[in-house]
Amino acid sequence: MTIRIKVSEDIFPVRGVFRISRGARTETRVVTVTVNDSGLIGRGECVPYSHYGETTESVIAEIQRGGLALSEGATRSDIQTIMQPGAARNAIDCALWDLEAKKAGKRAWEIAGIPEPHINETAFTLSLDDPVAMGIAAKEANDRPLLKIKLAGKDDIERVTNIRTNAPNSRLIVDANEGWTPDMVLPFSKKLAELGVSMIEQPLPASDDAALAEIPHAVPLCADESAHTSADIEQLKGRYEIVNIKLDKTGGLTEAIKFRDAIISSGMDVMVGCMLGTSLGMAPAMLIAQNAAFVDLDGPLLLAEDRSPGLCYTESKIAPPASELWG
Fold it and tell me: In what side-by-side order are the strands of the sheet with 242-245?
């Protein structure tokens, strides 16, 4: 197999402004990888994330090094050790899955030995804002069955109270993006439980989350920034009930499948999440989303424009990817 690789940066505008506790953005910059083997094309996408020390330039450079290894005969399996987990490996790994599916004339889930994906229901994210603005945003989205609320610490209870008032029938999950301190976890959790919140994602910084093993969990806790690959599974036990799998953290679908199996074997539940990317980035994650406790693959819903063709979203329901998109 002689593979040629092409890599580019693509910019997609966000619908309005997307805010979390660490900052705001009005566009997302994704890196797109195309692998070509004798005219057959596979594609993958990743989102470099500065919180993990990634830049567009560093990710592209790493992809080019991985592409050189592929041109010298490395396989998708080899890439798991040649490259480190993260955005760059994700783009190459998913592009190779897409290529393998095309070469075999099969869908990616058949190659992976996974049942055919079914329609999933995704969370819809309300980005961080002042409590009044978030209440208004909730009213506009109150037909969504599952809302994910970005939090930051101060004023969080008021934020969720306003959202619950304006979206009384929606299930709620919240994401603090490491924005709380240990003394907030129990009192905030108790208040959020009263408001019907089903899950709290990453309340403490990953470096400080050992404290969660000593704090009662009034609401199930989900690991995100603390959980990258299956190698993290042991330290997550006792701290969290749920683990968020993101392909940009695992370094692709190959490790994501392994991580999902490890989470289930450990007795924890699976959440499948995403960075702020396009349908090409969401499509491989649909294979992991089946039977997950929570699915958060709403990236394209938060963009002003998506790739074409993209995933088919009907309100909050996502259909499996067509072969023209991926896999």
Answer: 124-126, 146-150, 171-175, 197-201, 221-223, 242-245, 269-272, 294-295
Fold of 4-107: Enolase-like; domain 1 (3.30.390)
Token representation of residue 135 = 């209440």
Along the chain (327 residues), what's the average pLDDT of each consecutive run of 10 residues? 89 93 90 95 97 96 95 95 97 98 97 94 97 97 97 96 98 97 97 98 97 97 97 97 98 98 97 97 96 96 96 97 97
DSSP 127-169: ----HHHHHHHHHHTTT-SEEEEE--STTHHHHHHHHHHH-TT
DSSP-assigned states of every residue in 113-132: T-PPP--EE--EEE----HH
d(CA 148, CA 170): 10
Which sequence positions are flagged as catalytic? 150, 246
Residue 273: how many CA atoms within 13 Å on its side-chain side?
25
Tokens of 69: 């290894």
CB contact at 8 A, 324 and 98: no
Per residue in 3-50, pLDDT (tens digit) is 899 999 999 999 998 999 888 899 999 999 999 998 999 999 999 999
Fold of 120-318: TIM Barrel (3.20.20)
Threshold 0.85, pTM exceeds = yes
Alpha-carbon gap, residue 310 to 304, rounded angstroms: 13
Could you tell me which of 316, 282, 322, 317 has the C-alpha nearest to residue 299?
Answer: 282
Q: Write the burial class of residue 39 (CB in 10 Å: 0-12 exposed, 13-18 middle, 19+ buried).
A: exposed
